[in-house]
Amino acid sequence: MLTSKFVQSSSKVNPSKLTGETFATLINLSGRRRFTSQRVVLYAVLASNEDLGALVTAREALKLFADAHTSLVEGTEALPGVFSSELQTAYFGPESGDKKIRSFMELAERTFTAIESNWRQKADLLKDLIASTTPLLAVLNSITAIYEKEARTHANSVKNQLQDVMSEIKDISKQAHMVAFNAQIIAARAGNAGREFSVVANVMTSITAEIDKLVQAALAKAVT
């Protein structure tokens, strides 16, 4: 069990090495908590009406919810856990996101047990579970928005880095093009003796032209 404090990630993933795919997974898991929380409450209501099959579905939804939360907070071999100060604040700061999420899970489990055992307090627990839905969604929406913001920041950083690298390659290509151009002039002046050198210079010119095309294509993708 996690406690209501900042949990150092057990993941081997370096937050500075996160990829776009990793951010997509994080956003998906955070969104999954929103979806499965609603399923938990919906099927708990159905189970309270003596549909015990719904109780099985409710517990499955709760497990998906709990697994997603654990992966996001603790991290996995592929995920970083709580990797930014903004997420740390959202989960363990004044808003107590982690505590509220765990309280929902505990309340859901107590409600399931009460329904299954037909305890007298099952109606009150179910009422509390339903009432917890709106504030829980507010917390989950807020945290999901942070993951989306982090993803945009990461994408912009990668784009800027790519633009810098492509600009350097473009400069090198220009220099190579000038060398090839000068080589062609020298080869022409050398007559027959420079014929083979001229072939090499032409190939070099062709290569730099291809580099220019690749750089332009890469830069165009980086901007979009």
Protein topology:
Layout: H1 20-48, H2 52-74, H3 85-92, H4 97-117, H5 122-131, H6 133-189, H7 195-223
What brief labels describe this structure?
single chain; 224 residues; mainly alpha; de novo design (two linked rop proteins); 2 domains; 7 helices; 79% helix; rod-shaped
Kindly describe this structure:
By secondary structure, this protein is mainly α. It has 2 domains: 15-158, de novo design (two linked rop proteins), CATH 1.20.1440; 160-223. Helices cover 79% and strands 0% of the residues. It contains 7 helices and no strands. The chain has helices at 20-48, 52-74, 85-92, 97-117, 122-131, 133-189, 195-223. The protein is rod-shaped and about 105 Å long. The two termini are 43 Å apart.
| Domain unit count | 2
Task: Figure out the total of helices.
Answer: 7
Biggest sheet overview: none
Distance between the termini: 43 Å
Helices and strands, in order, run as: HHHHHHH
Structural class: mainly alpha
Share of helical residues: over 70%
**Beta-strand percent range:** under 5%
Q: Work out the number of β strands.
A: 0
Return the CATH class of the largest domain. Mainly Alpha
Segments where pLDDT lies below 50 for 5+ residues? 1-10
Quick description:
Helix content is 79%, strand content 0%. The protein has 224 residues and is an all-alpha fold.
